[in-house]
Write a structure and sequence with these properties.
The protein is mainly α. It contains 2 helices and no strands. Helix content is about 55%, strand content about 0%. Helix 1 packs across helix 2.
Length: about 60
């Protein structure tokens, strides 16, 4: 049986990732709701993902200093 490529290694991290996603969405002005968000445009979803990556890179770079 293969695992989904988007499954979390630590299932308890799911809540933290959801909070992170909601925060990123808020920062780029996208209104996410709990649960299904399949009505988002590709541009909206991409801006959320891009913001999350930007924040992860910033956190990594700050940790290196």
């Amino acid at each position: 049986m293969s695992k989904s490529s988007n499954s979390l290694v630590n299932p308890s991290a799911r809540d933290a990732m959801n909070r992170f996603k909601m925060e990123a969405a808020s920062q780029v002005g996208v209104n996410l709701k709990q649960g299904y968000n399949g009505d988002l445009t590709s541009k909206q979803a991409g801006s959320i993902g891009g913001q999350m990556v930007k924040k992860m890179i910033e956190a990594y770079e700050n940790g290196m200093q």
